[in-house]
Q: What sequence folds into this?
């Protein structure tokens, strides 16, 4: 990468954290390495089963298997302006179950929550389960109808997002 | 420290594994391999149909959704890591070689920034530093250190043992 | 390297072994024993282990498959089974494997349960 030779990051003897980030931005990571900048930062992870996890990314590997520390699972009901959360501790998530992940701005993340009503996690799980079940029934019906026309409608209980 | 290494060094600990189909398996880890296949002892297998108590189980890595590890696992592995680092660098290099691919990554992140290699900061240029988060936290001025404090004051207290529900 | 150094070195080695490349389960201990196998796609079978290989392909005898609810195939109907006899199970389709001896059903699945570890 010859263009990087002259970058400020390379020429200054001591670089700040911000400069390091800038420096890394010059690379176009398209692989798992793209999350290297989020190590030791708080991230959120959406799993294929719809779970939302918030935690500090401690490490990852080429499959995007993640280790999350101080993990919190949150359920949002945006229509009702409600949410629920529970502590999960240390989580290792297998990369193939991840839909998306991103860094969380810890200064801003609590703001929307303040405007929301917090309900118990058990209650939220029950509601969510009910909704997922309803969705599952509907999708199965849809799948059967589509099958009549020779179309495949692939839908799995554990893969609804 | 790759996830699989953390897991390998968590042998003997109890953990809870959720499978892709939503079933959970809780037990003591006895063995792990390269593919994250696991063997567990003294297992409780919870599925929608029943809860089974099994003496042992073999489990395909492929079928895992996530693993809930004990809270102190990172600290424990980190400690044995620190011990290792104090042993000198030649061993450290050995360890990194075994991790495969890591050395290559290091080289890539360091391209064009030879001096950064000696910075000792940053998560990017030194795989070893990634583990020494304790030191960074002690500094108190890194993004991470600030976060831990923030997090612990804003989030709820950890649920007492035995009350966490899945 | 002094003796004590060697000792600590060995300790480190033990502490920091990497993930294994070889098989982590010894199927010989289940030879001619009843085992319970879950397969990709959700099938559950039990049978007597007659043979196996490196790839975890299995030969089971007196195999019984537990049938599933027709509406929701994640629900396994314990009382509805079919006998398959002698079967080969491909290692690639195997998800979990556990011995049946020593297995114990905790009867009420809908009762919340406690365990000493408190997960």
A:
């Amino acid at each position: 990468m010859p263009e990087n030779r002259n970058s400020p990051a390379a020429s200054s003897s001591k670089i700040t954290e911000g400069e390091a980030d800038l420096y890394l931005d010059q690379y176009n990571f398209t692989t798992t390495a793209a999350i290297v900048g989020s190590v030791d930062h708080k991230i959120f992870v959406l799993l294929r089963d719809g779970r939302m996890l918030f935690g500090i990314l401690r490490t990852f590997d080429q499959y995007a298997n993640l280790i999350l520390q101080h993990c919190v699972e949150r359920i949002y009901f945006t229509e009702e302006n409600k949410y629920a959360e529970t502590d999960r501790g240390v989580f290792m998530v297998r990369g193939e179950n991840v839909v998306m992940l991103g860094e969380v701005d810890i200064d801003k993340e609590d703001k929307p929550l303040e405007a929301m009503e917090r309900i118990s996690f058990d209650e939220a799980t029950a509601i969510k389960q009910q909704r997922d079940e309803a969705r599952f029934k509907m999708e199965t019906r849809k799948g059967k109808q589509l099958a009549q026309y020779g179309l495949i409608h692939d839908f799995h209980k554990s893969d609804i997002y | 420290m790759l996830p699989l290494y953390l897991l390998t060094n968590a042998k003997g600990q109890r953990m809870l594994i959720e499978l892709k189909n939503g079933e959970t398996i809780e037990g003591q880890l006895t063995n792990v391999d390269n593919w994250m296949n696991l063997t567990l002892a003294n297992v409780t297998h919870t599925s929608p149909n029943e809860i089974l108590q099994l003496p042992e189980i073999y489990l395909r890595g492929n079928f895992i959704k996530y693993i809930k590890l004990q809270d102190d696992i990172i600290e424990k592995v980190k400690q044995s890591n620190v011990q290792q680092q104090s042993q000198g660098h030649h061993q450290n290099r050995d360890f990194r070689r075994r991790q495969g691919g890591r050395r290559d990554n290091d080289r890539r992140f360091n391209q064009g920034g030879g001096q950064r290699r000696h910075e000792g900061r940053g998560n990017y240029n030194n795989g070893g530093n990634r583990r020494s988060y304790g030191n960074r936290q002690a500094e108190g001025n890194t993004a991470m250190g600030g976060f831990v404090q923030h997090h612990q004051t804003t989030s709820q207290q950890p649920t007492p043992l035995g009350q966490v529900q899945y | 390297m002094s003796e004590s150094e060697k000792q600590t070195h060995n300790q480190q080695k033990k502490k920091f072994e990497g993930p294994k490349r070889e098989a982590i389960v010894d199927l010989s201990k289940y030879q001619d024993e009843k085992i319970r196998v879950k397969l990709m796609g959700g099938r559950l079978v039990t049978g007597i282990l007659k043979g196996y290989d490196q790839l975890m392909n299995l030969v089971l005898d007196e195999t019984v498959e537990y049938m599933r609810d027709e509406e929701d195939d994640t629900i396994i109907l314990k009382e509805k089974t079919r006998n398959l006899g002698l079967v080969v199970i491909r290692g690639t389709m195997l998800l979990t494997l556990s011995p049946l001896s020593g297995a114990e059903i905790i009867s009420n699945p809908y009762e919340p349960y406690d365990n000493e570890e408190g997960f």
